[in-house]
Design brief:
There is one protein chain. The two termini are 15 Å apart. Helices cover 49% and strands 12% of the residues. It has a single domain, classed as P-loop containing nucleotide triphosphate hydrolases (Rossmann fold, 3-Layer(aba) Sandwich), CATH 3.40.50.300. It is of the alpha/beta class. The chain has helices at 18-27, 35-42, 50-57, 70-77, 81-102, 135-146, 150-158, 163-169, 182-193; strands spanning 6-11, 31-34, 108-112, 128-132, 172-175.
Length: 194
């Protein structure tokens, strides 16, 4: 990053509470790029990743209106690590491009994404903040948030890195177990960072 731009990543598994942590950073003056929102945008029919997704996964993963059937694709990739890797490879380069364009007029920013570690987006980050939560809490949150069954939620969680992975790869860890003050942790990180 150039001297006048400070960028860090916020990462963690599904249901850990990355969005909640990102909202607190946002309230405290940080521009946050939401990886999920950007992923939706680049996968739209007019998005940068659409043609590659259609070419690799085929029309069966797209609805009649041309939109990507995210639930169907998720079921496929979360049960096949090589397909998940291909999906991430397609998506990350286009998401990174969107973030780079968005950073043009921003001096302090965070990138919120589940799969930052080892991706091209990680290279943009000065450091990473890992958000963790107990497996059962994450499971409960995903089932409620995404309206999927327990088996599908477990498959999603089991396809993702464990908590130790985030502890090894992130400078900061925020435990979002519902018992500690997450806001106090965010403010402490911001204080050190600034």
């Amino acid at each position: 990053m150039t001297a006048n731009k400070r960028v860090f990543g916020i990462t963690g598994g599904s249901g850990s509470g990355k969005s909640y942590v990102s909202d607190i950073f946002r309230k405290n003056g940080v521009t946050v790029f939401d990886g999920d929102v950007l992923a939706h945008e680049v996968a739209m029919p007019d998005g940068e990743a659409y043609a590659e997704l259609f070419e690799h996964f085929g029309g069966e993963y797209f609805a009649e209106n041309g939109l990507l059937d995210r639930k169907k694709l998720a079921a496929k990739v979360f049960s096949d690590k090589s397909e998940l890797g291909i999906l991430n490879g397609i998506m990350h380069k286009h998401i990174k491009g969107r973030i780079e364009r968005g950073l043009e007029n921003v001096s302090l920013a965070a990138i919120d994404g589940a799969v930052i570690i080892g991706s091209p987006v990680e290279e943009m980050c000065e450091f990473l903040v890992g958000v963790t939560a107990p497996y059962d809490k994450r499971l409960e949150r995903i089932i409620k948030r995404d309206g999927i069954g327990e088996a599908a939620a477990r498959a999603r969680l089991d396809a993702q890195p464990n908590e130790q992975f985030y502890r090894q790869n992130c400078r900061y860890i925020i435990e979002n177990d519902g018992e500690k003050s997450v806001e106090a942790e965010v403010l402490k990180i911001l204080e050190e960072f600034k």
